[in-house]
């Protein structure tokens, strides 16, 4: 039972509210159906009672008349039936050669007429009732020409041996009335449910936006936008709390970045002084070691400053033709020590557009291409797109990266010790900077090992929702 409950219980707030609505609507529908059935059966009983009293009154009146009087009385009934558009008919008929059937309408009518006559102080007559359908043999008889089938036929024996026939069409039965009412209630419930679903969707959409912005904030706080403080009170309070948290964290990050940049700039001055005094250091081998250490410290400071700058930017995002942009970056990166080739590109007449910061995106692609050239001797860069995203793939044929380290290599200052050359002189910040630059463009960067060997870096950017241009 618990596993079944876990199976049908939705995970989202929208699904949970919708499930509650469906259960409530189902309970309401069940109550409505019960009420409709009760009302319809009660109404049908009242109509049947009125009809039975009327039939018994006509029978008792005709039972006291002779043949001529009966004929005149039946003509008046027929005239009143035509004026009031009553569907039933009375006439004197021959003795029936059939017995009553067990159909519930026939049984009810027979019992009700007998009880009504008996209540009037007369002996209960011989009453027979049956249903006639369009496929019954009577439907083809001339005497029933113009009658509406299906109909209820009732035969009542008079005291003088004659038989009074009552025919009542049943083109609209109680069951059909009940089901019409049920369908009406069902449509009413469906329309109500549709309206409620739309309203619930509108009410839960701010929560979805909050989740999206929280995810964006987790990837890159600078890329997260303030939420609109609208909607219900709880939604407004959650949006206000998120905006206050975002503002505080962004201020702390800005303060941290400013501190790192200030420290980097301040360290340049003592390093310059030490470099000026290198000429006084003897012997030469010791001086060269000091110079190498100073250059290494300067490289660490420069990449540390670049890492701090990669966490935020004031550059504006602009629409870009991503195919032309990648082609220009590949042309700028051509060099003698490695080969950079263009792979597959979208061939349609409307190339995909992205809204990105050109400098940030270019530095990210250049870092990846530089790594590919340094460690694999070359790279192939390609572009693929669909309705939602654009993917930039940078593939090489190098040694690759162990699967368990594909995410760890993005950590600042982390360097591979066996998979790639340890003496390259890098500080382990290139991939961190590249990912930060991609995050500033609302994208993602992942690394994957190719099945045939080598590494594949995939940059994914969202396609612009506006109309594309040729």
From TrEMBL:
EC numbers: 2.7.13.3
Catalysed conversion reaction: ATP + protein L-histidine = ADP + protein N-phospho-L-histidine
Name by which UniProt lists this protein: histidine kinase
A molecular-function term among this protein's GO annotations: ATP binding
Organism from which the protein derives: Cloacibacillus porcorum
Enzyme class: transferase
Keyword Iron: no
One Pfam family here: HATPase_c
